[in-house]
Design a protein that fits this description.
Strand content: 5-15%
Number of helices: 17
Order of helices and strands: HEHHHHEHHEHEHEHEHEHHEHHHH
Structural class: alpha/beta
Helix content: 40-55%
Radius of gyration: 19 Å
Shape: globular
Bound molecules: hypoxanthine, zinc ion
Length: 334
């Protein structure tokens, strides 16, 4: 990879911390916690990284999450990610986590939040990385479970950026979670949602109109709906794209079939992210490098980094500071 893509300052807005669990750490935590993984070793686990679709990935992702038990586990996991992110030029992270899945493994929501926020504090001190947490509603669990999650999150609302929506998409339309997202909004949480990854453009409309989402995660199926493209562009509603994820989960037939260019040409604000980098063959700079191969030049790549700042929930002051870093980068690389 061109080393300049690592030094390009950027924000990462679509990152599931559980999706950064590398096989070596999974086995280390399994040993530490007395959990038996259903794979003989790191090599066997890595051989399973061959996905037909979103569900086949989620099955493995949830299986590996059983090794995460203590506050320290979550801190260690996130610090391993931050070290890689720092090396990839990431300066600000809005991080997803799946507390309902951990609750199912007997881990309290507070353990997850405290462990991850401890890593944020260390990353800020060590590397000046800013950001925060966006717990996600797991959409293939019952709505009552999402309501219970909101009850648990309420006392922590001031320590969180927002609420998200993830997991198996088709058959679980955003509209199911209208009340849950209304409650989250009333708690002062920013709202984002995965939509249009495998599901239709209609799910993106629902995420915007029914859930009040301010940003759409993936959203690639917007290319099927010209009215939606106009709406996204006009209102500057950003999409958090994850090109290597889409290829690995066969949401697109290949990188050359990715709608990135069509979305940019339609005037949509798009950002580049890694989703679940341990599973999809690359962290965020690898995603920038992959799309650079599609013929994007230095100015286009710098614009994508600027988009990640503008689409973030960073304060105006922090955003200005991040833009100044991109200015410096373009002055030497542009
Ligand atoms: N889509 C939906 N749910 C997820 C994903 C994703 O890409 N990654 C982790 N949970
Ligand atoms: Zn995702």
């Amino acid at each position: 990879m061109h080393p300049d893509l690592r030094s390009l300052p950027k924000a990462e807005l679509h990152l599931h911390i559980e999706g950064t669990l590398e096989p070596e750490l999974a086995f280390e935590l399994a040993g530490r916690n007395g959990v038996t993984l259903p794979f003989a070793d790191v090599d066997e686990l890595r051989r399973r990284y061959d996905f037909a679709d979103l569900q086949s990935f989620l099955d493995l992702y949830y299986a590996c999450m059983t090794v995460l038990r203590t506050e320290r586990d979550f801190t260690d996991l996130a610090l391993a990610y931050f070290a890689r992110a720092q090396a990839d030029g990431v300066r600000h992270v809005e991080m997803f986590c799946d507390p309902q899945v951990h609750a199912g493994n007997g881990v309290p929501v507070t353990t997850v939040i405290d462990g991850l926020l401890e890593a944020f504090a260390i990353a800020d001190e060590r590397w000046g990385i800013t950001g925060g947490l966006i717990p996600c509603v797991v959409r293939d669990q019952p709505v009552a479970s999402a309501d219970a999650l909101l009850d648990e999150l309420a006392p922590h609302a001031h320590r969180l950026i927002g609420i998200g929506l993830d997991s198996a998409e088709v058959g679980y339309p955003p509209s199911l979670f209208e009340r849950v997202f209304a409650r989250a909004g009333a708690l002062g949480l920013r709202r984002v949602a995965h939509a249009g990854e495998e599901g239709p453009a209609e799910y993106i409309w629902q995420a915007l109109r029914v859930l009040g989402a301010e940003r759409i995660d993936h959203g690639i199926r917007a290319v099927d709906d010209p009215d939606l493209l106009r709406h996204l562009a006009e209102h500057r509603i950003a999409l958090t794209l994850c090109p290597l994820s889409n290829v690995r989960l066969q949401a697109v037939t290949g990188l050359d079939a990715h709608p990135l260019r069509a979305l940019i040409d339609a005037g949509v604000v798009v950002t580049i992210n890694s989703d679940d980098p341990a599973y999809f063959g690359g962290y965020v700079a690898d995603n920038y490098a992959a799309i650079a191969e599609l013929g994007l030049g230095t100015a286009d790549l710098a614009q994508l980094a600027r988009n990640s700042i503008d689409a973030s929930f960073a304060s105006d002051e922090r955003a200005a500071g991040l833009h100044a870093l991109v200015d410096e980068w373009t002055a030497t690389h542009g």
